[in-house]
Amino acid sequence: MNTLVKLAALWAKSGWRSVVSWAGLALCTIRAMGPLRDICHCKSIVVVQLGHFGDMVLTLPLLDAIRKSNPKARIRVITTSAGAAVANAFGEGNEVLVPNSRVGCVSAFYGADFIIHLRGGLWWVFGAFREYKAGFVHGLPHRSALRWAPLLLMGIPINRRAPEHQYVTLMRRMQKFGLRMPQHPVLDVETNARPADWPSDIGYIIVHAGGNWRPRRWSEEKFYHVCASLWQKYGLRAVIISAHETPGLSERLRMNAIPLHELPPATTILNLAAMIKGASLFLGNDSGPAHLAAFLGVPCVVLYGPQDPRLFGVLSEKRKIVKGNAYCSPCWQIDCPHRHVRCMDSISVDSVLFAISELVQSDKNTIMGDRK
After folding, report:
1. Global pTM value
2. Closest by alpha carbon to 239, among 269, 202, 187?
3. Which of helix, strand or coil describes residue 201?
């Protein structure tokens, strides 16, 4: 009985999120019927991105394109604390606002000539309606299986047409307003950082086994086997991001005398980017650091389960995506009803090692270790 109650509660939460998502898409579509304005000549621009680390990384090319096309514009970015850290690290001259209350930050819309809504609750869409004379564009995908998550959870199949990546959708829509975003976004950092006690000729991999969304996590045991294999085959040491979230991985590596380095939780975004830039490979779950590694041009192997990589996948030509299979994927990642066979558990160590070997075969210089 308890299991049935939990499933019912999970279905209700999933259903509510889908209803809100559909409502948000409908309201944004209606609001987008307003006046067309050339964003390159607007004096005040508001960008709403209330997503997470990775969402703001994907927003950086937009902010950069706005600044280059309209240097004198006042750009206000409404985001979360994680998004603010990214925006402040890589953006110059923008006003970054983290809302403490809905009422306080809706005032940021006042006087806006153009509003770009990427992610946020219905309240923020209503705020855009207040400035009805402002131009408006949104980045919400029209085709997303995620909105049908309650049906998938019940085992009801749907017609899963291939969705367009959210970045491509935004890039295409912004072109209508005179703004051109790069098709292959790139970030750059001035220096490559590495642990002070490591020689410069020793390669390393960035490993991110944690993440805020537990349903997206692959098991620490499987991460250990991949790290051990890369050390034995290529001499690549492991640099663990968010090691405090996955203490079992670090402990297992130490027990088996496999060199590793843990990045402290207080590591700044720029230091993290510099560390990733110097890596031979990024290996991790679907997360913000994965998007950052892709923008930095580092070869990536990223693991996906409850999300759709066609819609939210990392943007890089040097990437391999390993997707776990489940009838209920994608989902809202509130909780997983499958205690024994989850989508992430269906990803095998061999499939990840095979993806890495494909990267090596495509570019012999991809992985550089101190042992051949």
Report:
1. 0.90
2. 202
3. coil
Give 317: exposed, middle or buried? Use CB within 10 Å, 0-12, 13-18, 19+.
exposed
Q: How far apart are CA 31 and CA 136, in angstroms?
A: 7
For residue 253 the two structure tokens come to: 């590596």
Residue for token digits 């609001």?
31
- Alpha-carbon distance of 283 to 300, in angstroms, equals 6
Question: Do 360 and 366 meet the contact criterion of CB atoms below 8 Å apart?
Answer: yes
What tokens appear for 297 in the block? 């041009």
Compute the CA torsion angle 319, 325, 330, 333 (nearest 10 deg).
-90
User: DSSP assignment, residue 21?
Assistant: H
The rounded average pLDDT for each run of 10 residues, N- to C-terminus, in the chain (372 residues) is: 70 84 91 86 92 93 93 93 92 86 68 91 85 88 79 73 86 88 86 63 87 87 95 90 88 90 85 89 94 94 92 91 87 72 87 93 61 36
Residue 261 DSSP SS3: strand
Return the amino acid letter for 24.
Answer: G
For 161, the token pair is 């047409």
